[in-house]
Amino acid sequence: MKTKDMYREGNELNEGESKINYEWLYRMDFEKSPDAKLMLKERRIIDCNESAVRFFGYDSKEELLGGMPYLLSPIIQTDGKPSMVKGNEMLTLVEKKGSHRFEWIHKTKEGKSFFAEVVLTLLPIEGERVISASLQDITERKGIQEVLEEKEEFYRSLFHNNHAIMLLADPDNGEIIDVNPAACFFYGYDRQTFLTMNVKDISTSSEKKIFSTIEDVRFHHGKHYYLKDRIANGEIKDIEIYSGPIRVKNKELLYSIIHDITEKNRTMTALEASEKKFKELFHNANDMIFLHGYDENKRTGKIMEVNDIACMKLGYRREELLKMTPWELNVEDMRRFVPENTKRILKEGHATFETVMQTKDKKRIAVEINAHMFKLLGQDVNLSVVRDITERKETMKLLGETIAYDKLKTEFFSNISHEFRTPLNVIFGTLQLMELCLQRGDGDLNIENIERYVKRMKQNGCRLLRLVNNLIDITKIDSGYYEVQMQNYDIVHLVEDITLSVAEYVETKEIGLVFDTDLEERILACDPDAMERVVLNLLANAIKFTNPGGTIQVYIHDQGNHISISVTDTGIGIPKEKLDSIFERFRQVDKTLTRNHEGSGIGLSLTKSLIELHDGTIKVESELGKGSKFIIELPIRMMQNKAEDSHFMRNAQQSKIERIHIEFSDIYSINI
Ligand code: ADP
């Protein structure tokens, strides 16, 4: 029927009025609607349209009529309720309310389920409870919605279950719109309280700063900030915050993802502090410190780090050292030990050894190296603490020398006691003999014997005196109280005089004595007494250690600004290794030798000291079994304001013969 007809029919029914036939219209809508329509009475289908037949996949209307609507549904609905129960609930509801819209799962004749939106309406037919049902297939719409719901669920879960702290805020006023549980946990507020708060309540920044940051996020694409927030218990937390705008229901909000970096910052600060401390330790250490790696052949690699003290001690700039290997810093004669040490460090992880390093200007430094291996970024590296032990070595040497000196001193005292005791024994022995003769009153005490006894006692008295003199002088020299009596004196005359005065004695020992000089006279500043003792001592030694048939030569040479006096003998000589030490205090080359020749081992030491007081030097050349040569060099200097002294004037108290007696007392004693 056409729309026009529809109106005409209506007009026909209500003449004179333009009245619409609603019942007819309703009927038309029921019949022709694309939506499925059912008419229910007493909960059974009493009528349906063609759309409904198609909707449910049936062939004819008759198949549906008389059936119950729940039979067009699966047994269970989405909420788990049986369709029959839920269907009756819906019908009861519509009988009460008049109409009701709800979603329902239906099924076709073939059993295929689909979503439908159902509108039930109670029709106002008197005395009858007729319900019209209009059904729309919403499976497609439902599908989209489900995806949307799933998505929403996903994002909600992302927001709620995320361990990252998340906040949503209103950028206009800073009000907090939503927070996730991680945020509640971190800040210590429950969600309800949080939603009444403002970002101002949690930020330690000023309001101005907060809103300038928000502005930065909104309008300048700012994303990443380091801030400080206050949590519920008042604690201040360092936070790293990622922010951005987000549109929710047409309103622009600001999301913030917050990371608590308090601990990280604390660790970083502690790390920085400890790094600073180690850096200071590294550079302010007293020892040199090197860090170096190894090359592919496990040889020491380039220096990776070095401290200031190492640069200072070795005289290199840091940049220069960073181009070198520790191998190059070893002195050449120690480099051959490097591979062996490297092997040990690599095998055992650490090693301590001594070596000698060299500075840029090739100065040697004795060092002790404490090397440790460790891994740095997966590579083997060596940290070596290098201590300069030059001083320690010197101290050790000094200590060794002190100990040796001490031993020598002890030896000297036992030796010197013997030296004192021997002449004293002789003196007392002689006195006893004389006493015995006197007691007996026998003729043994004749003039001849008395002379012999007196000579013997005098001789040994001289030995004691020489010893005491030497000891006193050496002590004086040691303590700086010995005063040389410098005079301008003819040294040639002095040496010649003293040499000739022992000539007679030397001859009795069957030793030849030669004196020679290329100078007639040489006046220079010296202490004649001291020089005389020096020459006498050298001559006495030469006689002591030269066998009969040998020769002793005394030479004086002019050397320009100094003169040299040499005493050469063809005696037993001195072993090479002892040459350096014979001028040292208390040294005797060989105890067994010296037992044949009395002596305390202080003669040469005193000689050397006396020569040095003249600013001169003394040295020895000797070959074992062939002889020795002692050479004195004296500077030629003159005393100001002093005339040449006559050698006849000096030391009037003690005659030269006596001095020779004293100096030679060791040798005489053997013969007596
Ligand atoms: P001493 O008083 O014992 O002779 P010195 O200091 O004069 O002490 O000499 C030290 C040592 O040097 C002697 O004991 C001797 O071993 C050695 N010596 C000194 N002069 C000679 C020499 N001319 N020939 C060989 N040995 C010598």
Automatic annotation (TrEMBL):
Entry-linked Gene3D superfamilies: 1.10.287.130, Histidine kinase-like ATPase, C-terminal domain, PAS domain
| Top-rank EC class of the record's enzyme | transferase
User: In what residue span(s) does the Histidine kinase domain sit?
Assistant: 415-638
Highest taxon listed in the record's lineage: Bacteria
Q: Which PROSITE patterns match?
A: HIS_KIN, PAS
Q: E.C. number, please?
A: 2.7.13.3
Any idea which GO molecular function terms this record carries? ATP binding; phosphorelay sensor kinase activity
Reaction equations catalysed? ATP + protein L-histidine = ADP + protein N-phospho-L-histidine
Which InterPro entries would you find in this protein's record? HATPase_C_sf, HATPase_dom, His_kinase_dom, HisK_dim/P_dom, HisK_dim/P_sf, PAC, PAS, PAS-like_dom_sf
UniProt KW keywords: ATP-binding, Kinase, Nucleotide-binding, Phosphoprotein, Transferase, Two-component regulatory system
> Entry's SUPFAM superfamilies?
ATPase domain of HSP90 chaperone/DNA topoisomerase II/histidine kinase, Homodimeric domain of signal transducing histidine kinase, PYP-like sensor domain (PAS domain)
Ranges of residues in domain PAS: 274-349
Q: Sorted alphabetically, which CDD domains does this protein's record hold?
A: HATPase_EvgS-ArcB-TorS-like, HisKA, PAS
PANTHER family xref list = SENSOR HISTIDINE KINASE RCSC (PTHR43711:SF26), TWO-COMPONENT HISTIDINE KINASE (PTHR43711)
Q: What NCBIfam families does UniProt report for this protein, alphabetically?
A: sensory_box
Protein name in the entry: histidine kinase
Natural source organism: Anaerosolibacter carboniphilus
